[in-house]
């Protein structure tokens, strides 16, 4: 995370502090079910915030849930890469 802050990233304390991404750590080749990731968030309000973020956040921005490879590859590329290949989809 330290490297990401040099590129302008800010760590949010909760999903209510306007995060753009939630980064999920996993082993190579491991698939973590979306429902398990949601359950790992603190409670129902946090889960709802992530599921319905595009409706609840100003500007309609969806909170993207991505695997950590997105962060490491973005740092190597020195820019935020598109999330499609890294996103944990519902």
UniProtKB/TrEMBL annotation:
Designated name of the protein: BRCT domain-containing protein
InterPro entries with a match to the protein in the record: BRCT_dom (IPR001357), BRCT_dom_sf (IPR036420)
Species in which this protein is naturally found: Ceratodon purpureus (Fire moss)
Lineage summary: Eukaryota, Viridiplantae, Streptophyta, Embryophyta, Bryophyta
Ranges where the BRCT domain occurs: 1-88
């Amino acid at each position: 995370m330290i490297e990401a802050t040099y590129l302008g990233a800010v760590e949010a304390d909760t999903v209510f502090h306007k995060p753009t991404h939630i980064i999920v750590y996993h082993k190579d080749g491991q698939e973590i079910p979306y429902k398990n990731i949601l359950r790992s968030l603190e409670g129902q309000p946090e889960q709802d915030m992530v599921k319905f973020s595009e409706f609840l956040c100003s500007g309609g921005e969806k909170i993207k849930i991505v695997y950590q490879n997105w962060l490491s590859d973005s740092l190597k590329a020195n820019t935020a890469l598109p999330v499609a290949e890294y996103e944990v989809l519902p």
